[in-house]
């Protein structure tokens, strides 16, 4: 296993941006991917994030009235994130339930149930970074949100350019 300080969870917004070239975050997600390669970070894919990514991709294909597009997007996702590379945290939902509820309550609902589970999974595994365009994670004291490629290189102390 890689140095824990170089493990970074990729959130749904970044994964969708990587998979869907029509996504508003596509260019930023590609730049994220490149920065992660430069610093040799280990990307972590939680099962609940993969689940949410599939739902977002399906919904967008239907909203575009191009349901046939979904099969291609799903194939890209499963190629990028094969089952054996998924870290399973949803199995811990029952154990974390009261903490998830407390975290949702403490953020007045800004952090939803799903994101609270992600944050607690990161804490449990000693992962201090999440790559996301979702500012809701700014409310989690033990997790540093990386929202730009420069954030990746600054957090890991390596110059990008």
Structure, described:
The chain has one domain: 5'-nuclease (Rossmann fold, 3-Layer(aba) Sandwich). The chain is built from seven helices and five strands, in the order E-H-H-E-H-H-E-H-H-E-E-H. The mean pLDDT is 91. It is globular and about 40 Å long. It has a five-stranded parallel β-sheet with strand order 3-2-1-4-5. The protein is 52% helix and 11% strand. With 161 residues, the protein is α/β, with parallel strands linked by helices. It has helices at residues 12-19, 26-38, 47-63, 69-80, 93-106, 113-125, 149-155; strands at 7-10, 42-46, 86-87, 129-131, 144-146.
* Residue runs with pLDDT of under 50 for 5 or more positions: none
Cα-atom radius of gyration: 16 Å
Give the strand line-up of the largest sheet: 3-2-1-4-5
- Our count of domains comes out at 1
List the helices and strands in order.
EHHEHHEHHEEH
Shape: globular
Q: What proportion strand?
A: 5-15%
- Helix fraction, binned, reads 40-55%
Query: What is the CATH top level name?
Result: Alpha Beta
Average pLDDT rating: 91
CATH superfamily: 5'-nuclease
Distance between the termini: 27 Å
CATH architecture: 3-Layer(aba) Sandwich
- CATH topology name, in short, is Rossmann fold
Main β-sheet: number of strands, strand sense, barrel status? 5 strands, parallel
Number of strands: 5
**What is the helix tally?**
7
The SS-based structural class is: alpha/beta
């Amino acid at each position: 296993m890689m140095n824990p300080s170089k493990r970074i969870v990729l959130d749904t917004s970044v994964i969708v941006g990587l998979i869907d070239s029509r996504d508003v975050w596509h260019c930023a997600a590609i730049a994220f991917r490149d920065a992660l390669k430069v610093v040799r970070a280990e990307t972590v894919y939680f099962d609940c994030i993969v689940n949410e990514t599939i739902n977002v991709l399906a919904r967008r294909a239907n909203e575009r009235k191009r349901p046939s597009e979904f099969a291609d997007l799903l194939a890209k996702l499963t190629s990028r994130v094969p089952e054996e590379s998924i870290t399973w945290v949803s199995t811990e939902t029952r154990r974390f339930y009261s903490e998830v509820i407390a975290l949702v309550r403490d953020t007045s609902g800004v952090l939803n149930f799903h994101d609270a589970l992600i944050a607690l999974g990161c804490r449990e595994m000693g992962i201090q970074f999440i790559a996301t365009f979702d500012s809701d994670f700014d409310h989690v004291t033990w997790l540093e949100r990386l929202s730009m490629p420069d954030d990746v290189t600054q957090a890991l102390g390596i110059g990008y350019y």
